[in-house]
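Quick start: read one record
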Amino acid sequence: MTHKAKWLSFAPAGLLFIGAGASMVHWAGSLKDRRVPAPQWLAAGTAALVVLNAGVSLFGRGVVEKVLHEAREKP
């Protein structure tokens, strides 16, 4: 797989996960506000942060692949 193909797959996937994780963080906060038992909103919040951080990691990998692509394309 080329650096360009990796970049074009990692970056959008990262953005998707970042958006999903941010939405999940809000959802977990609303569970806490509704006084759901602590283990439930803590588990939801932990899962939300895992998804959000995975998105940041994927997006970062996309940036790395973009830089490698540009470095290899220059004469």
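The chain has two helices and no strands.
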